[in-house]
User: Fold this.
Amino acid sequence: MRTRVRRVAHFLERIGLAMAGAASGLFVAAHTGSAIAFLTTQAFLLAMMVGGAIGFYLGIDTPPLPFHPEGENDGVRARIDAAELLSAIGTFLAAFTAFVSVAVIVLRTEPHMTWTVLVLVGWVLGITMQTVAGAIARLRA
Assistant:
């Protein structure tokens, strides 16, 4: 049984992850919005922040599948945990694109439009993978 203190600590941790996701979304939105004219709206900034918050809240710290070493369960081979794989790849993509966006902003560079679009696509793909992973992990429990 989880104590109240552990539940509160876990909740605070998840809120912190959501805030980190929102901040990352803000950086990606600022970078891509400054390069792509029609993305310079407050709605775009808000959507990117909310998407990041949801993705990081759900997609990080997903409940894993129970581990069964090979040989247990009458020779049944261990399955790949789709939620864990999606979460890992999505977190990497989201964090990497946020890092690139911060670097572009701080160094005041103007990358080619292709790179900016790739950052935006990578971010959206990353947070989508995180959100799907979190949903899969919680629905199977």
Q: What stands out?
A: The chain has a mean pLDDT of 89. Helices lie at 4-35, 42-59, 82-107, 113-139. The first helix runs from residue 4 to 35. Residues 115 and 133 are 26 Å apart (CA to CA).
